[in-house]
C-alpha cells in the first residue's frame, strides 16, 4: 500500500477533442464588445436607449479580456506534440491578416483623402505594432479596434516559448498557477495607479505584456482541463466524448 501521505494518482488526461460550445461563448463576448462600441461612440446619446446601453454594455470592454483568455486556451488545447508552434502561427496569420490588411487599406485611404493620415502611425498599425507605443493616437490610430490584434500578434509570436514554460508546470501545481495569474490580472490596475493617466490606461488595457497575463491564464486552464483537474471533472469526460467538453470546463480566445 502507498503511504498515507502520498498524493492520489491524477485522473487520466482528457482527449483533445473539439469544444464547439466555445463558439457560443465567443458570440456572446463579441456581442458585448459590439454593444460597448455603440455605447462608447455615443450613437444613441439623447435617446431613451442611452441608459439601457450604459447599463447593459457599459463594461463590455471586458469581452476583449475574455477573447485573450480564449485565445490561450484554444491554441494550447489544439497544440499537438511534434508540431512546431510556427505552424499554428502561420495558420492564425492566414486567418487574421488578410481581413486586417483589407480593413486597414480602406480606413487609411479614407483618412488620407480627408487629410488626417499619419504615415508612421499607419505603418505601425499595418504591421500590428501599434499597441507597443504608449500614445493613444498611435495605438488607436487608423483602425482603432486593431489594437487588440496587435496584442494577439505578440501572443502568437511568443506562443511557442510560452507553451514550453506552461508545459513544465507539474499537474498538481496547475491550479496554483491559474490562481497566481488571476491575482496578477487583478493586481495590474493597482500597480498602474502611480502612473500618469494616459500611461496608466495604456499599461492596464493596451500593453501587450500585461494583457498577456490573460492569454497565459487561458493556456494554463487548457492544461487544467486536459489533465482532468477541472472542478467539473465528473461531467467533463462524457461531455468531451460527445464533443461538448467545454460545458463543464473552460474557455479561450480570439481577436
Order of helices and strands: HHHHHHHHHHH
- Specify the biggest β-sheet: none
Helix/strand-derived class?
A: mainly alpha
> Assembly type of the shown chains?
single chain
The N- to C-terminal Cα distance equals 51 Å
Strand share of the residues? under 5%
The radius of gyration over CA amounts to: 20 Å
Low-confidence spans: 233-255
* Total number of beta strands: 0
Counting DSSP H or I runs of 4 or more residues, the number of helices is 11
Overall shape: globular
Helix content range of the residues, please?
55-70%
Average predicted confidence as pLDDT: 77
Describe the fold and architecture.
Helices cover 64% and strands 0% of the residues. Helix 3 (62-78) packs across helix 10 and helix 8 runs antiparallel to helix 10 (208-226). The protein has helices at residues 21-40, 49-57, 62-78, 85-114, 119-126, 136-139, 147-167, 174-192, 197-206, 208-226, 236-241. It is mainly alpha-helical and 255 residues long. The chain has eleven helices and no strands. The model is unreliable at 233-255 (pLDDT under 50). The longest helix is centred in the middle third of the chain and has 30 residues, at 85-114.
Amino acid at each position: 500500500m502507498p503511504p498515507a501521505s502520498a498524493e492520489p494518482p491524477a485522473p487520466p488526461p482528457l482527449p483533445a477533442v473539439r469544444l464547439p460550445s466555445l463558439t457560443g461563448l465567443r458570440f456572446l463576448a463579441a456581442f458585448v464588445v459590439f454593444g460597448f462600441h455603440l455605447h462608447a461612440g455615443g450613437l444613441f446619446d439623447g435617446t431613451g436607449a442611452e441608459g439601457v446601453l450604459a447599463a447593459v454594455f457599459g463594461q463590455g470592454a471586458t469581452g476583449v479580456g475574455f477573447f485573450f483568455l480564449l485565445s490561450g486556451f484554444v491554441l494550447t488545447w489544439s497544440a499537438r506534440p511534434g508540431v512546431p508552434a510556427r505552424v499554428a502561427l502561420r495558420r492564425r496569420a492566414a486567418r487574421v491578416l488578410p481581413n486586417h490588411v483589407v480593413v486597414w487599406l480602406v480606413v487609411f485611404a479614407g483618412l488620407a483623402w480627408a487629410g488626417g493620415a499619419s504615415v508612421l502611425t499607419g505603418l505601425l498599425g499595418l504591421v500590428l505594432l501599434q499597441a507597443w507605443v504608449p500614445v493613444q493616437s498611435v495605438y488607436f490610430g487608423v483602425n482603432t479596434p486593431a489594437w487588440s490584434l496587435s496584442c494577439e500578434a505578440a501572443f502568437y509570436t511568443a506562443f511557442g516559448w510560452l507553451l514550453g514554460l506552461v508545459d513544465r508546470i507539474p499537474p498538481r501545481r496547475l491550479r496554483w498557477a491559474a490562481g497566481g495569474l488571476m491575482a496578477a490580472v487583478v493586481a495590474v490596475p493597482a500597480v498602474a495607479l502611480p502612473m500618469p493617466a494616459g500611461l496608466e490606461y495604456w499599461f492596464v488595457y493596451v500593453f501587450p505584456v500585461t494583457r498577456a497575463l490573460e492569454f497565459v491564464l487561458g493556456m494554463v486552464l487548457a492544461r487544467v482541463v486536459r489533465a482532468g483537474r477541472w472542478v467539473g471533472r465528473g461531467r467533463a469526460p462524457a461531455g468531451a466524448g460527445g464533443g461538448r467538453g467545454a460545458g463543464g470546463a473552460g474557455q479561450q480566445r480570439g481577436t
